[in-house]
Specification:
The protein is of the alpha/beta class and 289 residues long. It is built from 10 helices and 7 strands. The radius of gyration is 20 Å and the shape is elongated.
Length: 289
């Protein structure tokens, strides 16, 4: 796969960033320390156990709760940690209470594809389930590489392309039946192989990508939609359908399609979650800026 092919696979400017940020601000489940997001962050920290790196400066990209940043600070008390989030309200929620002589993560607001840092500042960039919400994922990866020091590490999780495939198949089916067309309702998500190619195309070396895939059982469609809304997920695209297509009648037809195609023996609905883990090094080369 060529670099041009990889980059074309992730179209920019589809995501409505203002709508996306409003959804994150109103999310609730992200703040739960025992929630799915916290569990994913813990898995990221466990992967650091096998990597020989003692970072002096860390960027946590896409911070929501401050939990991962605080865990990193406890792991490396002397490290200078910046926690960058995408909305000001989340940055305010992440303010830390510490004693005057204790280090604590610094909160900033910014965008992953235009990082407010000079070149080569960080020894580690870590991101938990945030990069796939960038309006331009290749640009975000290039920015991360720019702010990393030579021979330093990027470690992250993103949602994979198989996530929620059952729901999106039913959305397409109902749209085509009712309106003769369908709409893109989420950013283009990478596949496992595509993620490795994308890291290489963005200038990283020694890229490693693997996945954790699970099929969850959910009681019904409204329950699933509530969980997604609580996580800040949803249709945040510019070309989203009109308000009338998300009414009660539409949702009833969507659940009928979901149950007709995927209902399990216990009357629950399957929901696939694919979590991709990636890590790569900046390297010392000067072929990419």
């Amino acid at each position: 796969m060529t670099e041009q092919t990889v980059l074309d696979f992730f179209p920019a400017a589809r995501l409505d960033t203002q709508r996306f940020r409003r959804a994150w601000q109103s999310s609730t489940a992200m703040t739960a320390p025992e929630g799915l997001l916290a569990q994913m962050g813990q898995q990221l920290l466990e992967r650091l156990d096998d990597i020989k790196l003692v970072p002096g400066r860390i960027l946590e990209l896409g911070d929501r709760t401050g939990l991962l940043a605080r865990q990193l600070q406890r792991r490396w008390p002397k490290a200078d940690i910046h926690a960058l989030t995408f909305t000001e309200s989340l940055a305010r929620q992440g303010q830390y209470r510490t004693l005057p002589w204790q280090r604590h993560p610094r909160n900033l607001v910014g965008s992953a594809d235009a990082l407010p840092f000079a070149r080569g500042q960080f020894d580690l960039v870590i991101s938990n389930m945030a990069l796939h919400w960038s309006p331009d994922l290749p640009a975000a990866l290039r920015e991360i590489r720019r702010v990393l020091a030579p021979d330093r590490l990027l470690l992250f999780t993103v949602a994979g392309s198989e996530s929620l495939w059952e729901l999106h198949a039913c959305l397409t089916q109902v749209d085509q039946t009712e309106y003769g067309r369908s709409w893109v309702r989420r950013p283009e998500l990478p596949s496992l192989s595509g993620l490795g190619h994308l890291l290489s195309a963005s200038g990283f070396v020694l890229p490693v990508a693997d996945r954790d895939r699970a099929v969850l059982s959910v009681p019904d469609l409204p329950w699933l939609l509530r969980q997604l809304k609580a996580l800040g997920a949803g249709n945040h695209m510019h070309n989203r359908p009109g308000h009338g297509l998300a009414g009660r009648t539409y949702l009833e037809k969507l659940e009928q399609a979901y149950r007709a195609g995927f209902r399990q023996p216990d009357n629950s609905l399957p929901c696939t979650i694919e979590l991709l883990f990636g890590h790569a090094w900046k390297g010392a080369d000067k072929t990419h800026t």
